[in-house]
Design brief:
NagB/RpiA_transferase-like; 6-phosphogluconolactonase; 7-stranded parallel β-sheet; 10 strands; binds the ligand O=C1O[C@H](COP(=O)(O)O)[C@@H](O)[C@H](O)[C@H]1O; hydrolase
Length: 239
């Protein structure tokens, strides 16, 4: 694929550094949520965990939005206690749901069930509350092309990547990353007004460019986000 060619529904936004990216993406997310709130009683924001979103969370939490009318949940969760260092819920509570954003309603994915498989139906019920389409979905991507917790080689991948699937979420145990997990399915994540892929670093840019080429989503699950006709995907990248 020639440099610069990308799937038709993909728009690229490139920044000189991570803080510039975070500031611009926070401003855009604020506009999109504001548009949702002006048209409907509530708006939804689905965020990812891991290390990439930290500067975004810090830029977003001070935005002057009617946060008490915003529902926040996660694209995926590691099945660890909510106060565990690697819990995505902990990250969101400590780093996003502060300052003005403390007024938002948070919907955790982690339940008290022992495994994500056992927690799946409660989680689906929690997500049923969210009006569709979702307003803003912000996805991350791992170096292996996973997005949310849709990992290459995991047993739940076919179910999670089914574009017409009715499952809101899937339980999985990645062979290549720690912790059992629960992930929103691709059909849930793409039923959205705005979908963002937020990635940083040259390595992730190379994986993203590889995923822009036609191929199997089972080897690079992010392909299921990039190669579809349902919604525009805005890719925000910086070195
Ligand atoms: O495990 C996960 O990985 C991805 C990417 O994380 P990063 O640390 O490379 O930014 C993340 O999007 C996902 O939410 C998380 O659970």
């Amino acid at each position: 694929m020639a440099n610069g060619v990308r799937p038709p529904r993909v728009m690229e936004h490139r920044f000189k550094d991570r803080n510039s990216l975070a500031g611009a993406l926070a401003a855009d997310v604020c506009d999109w949520l504001g548009t949702g709130l002006s048209a409907r009683p509530r708006a939804s924001l689905i965020v990812s965990g891991g290390s990439t979103p930290l500067p975004l969370f810090h830029a977003l939490r001070d935005k002057p939005l009617a946060w008490e009318r915003i529902d926040v949940t996660l694209a995926d969760e590691r099945w660890v206690s909510p106060d565990h260092a690697d819990s995505n819920e902990r990250l969101v509570r400590q780093e996003l749901l502060q300052a003005k954003a403390a007024a938002a309603r948070f919907i955790p994915l982690k339940t008290t069930a022992a495994t994500p498989e056992q927690g799946l139906s409660e989680c689906e019920a929690r997500l049923d509350d969210l009006p569709r389409p979702l307003d803003v979905v912000i996805l991350g991507m791992g170096g292996d092309g996973h997005t949310a917790s849709l990992f290459p080689g995991s047993e739940a991948l076919a179910k999670g990547l089914d574009p017409e699937g009715i499952a809101r979420c899937v339980a999985c145990t990645p062979g290549t990353a720690p912790y059992p997990r629960l992930s929103l399915s691709i059909s849930t994540l793409l039923n959205a007004r705005r979908v963002v892929l937020h990635i940083v670093g040259a390595d992730k840019w190379a994986v993203y460019r590889q995923a822009c080429e036609a191929g199997e989503p089972s080897s690079l699950p992010i392909r299921a986000v990039l190669h579809q006709n349902r919604v525009q995907v805005d890719v925000y990248w910086s070195p």
